[in-house]
Amino acid sequence: MNTLEAFNQALFLLINGTTATPAWLVGMAMLIADYVIWLIPLLLAAMWLRGNEAQRSLAVRACLVAMLGVGANQLIGLAWQHPRPFMIGLGRTFLPHAPDSSFPSDHATVFAGIALTLLLGGARGLGGFTLVAGVAVAWARVFLGVHFPLDMLGAIVVAGVAYFLLAPFWALGGAAVTRRAITLYRKLLARPIALGWLRR
User: Fold this and answer.
1) Would you list the domain boundaries of the chain?
2) DSSP states of 4-28 as a string?
3) H-only helix segments in 105-148
4) How many other C-beta atoms can be found within 10 angstroms of the C-beta atom of residue 98?
5) 166 close to 65: Cβ distance less than 8 angstroms
6) What is the pLDDT of residues 85-127, one digit of tens each?
7) Taking a C-beta distance cutoff of 8 angstroms, is the pair 84, 95 a contact?
């Protein structure tokens, strides 16, 4: 075992729950690990439905960064299979999970990609909120035994690469993509928009 992997496993064991962990803490971690991710579509939907064109553009860009990052994760998993802790009998697992590659974490990639895009796009409040939520999810998934700490660091790197790979394409066509999305939205939801239920 190389030094980095030994460090990864040792850090995992420091964070991972044990048989002595209180049931309430395990329950709280399971709620965070499974359900906080749903804040992301709610956040993006709220930015779209209540925001102006600039906020809608930022929401679309954040969504694309997250999707590109998760797509990259699938390719990394195909090229290099890294086992999850329970696949090598390490620590204690509280959350059932498929025995697929652990690196990088898809959950952390989504949070990191959204947070990075919002922060760099000037939405510091929403970006900071997303970042804090992402840290909580990353902790919970390591605590519950389905990820290693370095899976989360890898996710941050992947999200950063996805952001900067998308940047030149967004500079060229981001405004057009946003305008087309707004046009489609106004056609599909013309009635509730006309009634004043949704922002035009």
Assistant:
1) 31-93+100-194
2) HHHHHHHHHHHHS--TTS-HHHHHH
3) 106-120, 124-143
4) 7
5) yes
6) 999 999 999 999 999 999 999 999 999 999 999 999 999 999 9
7) no
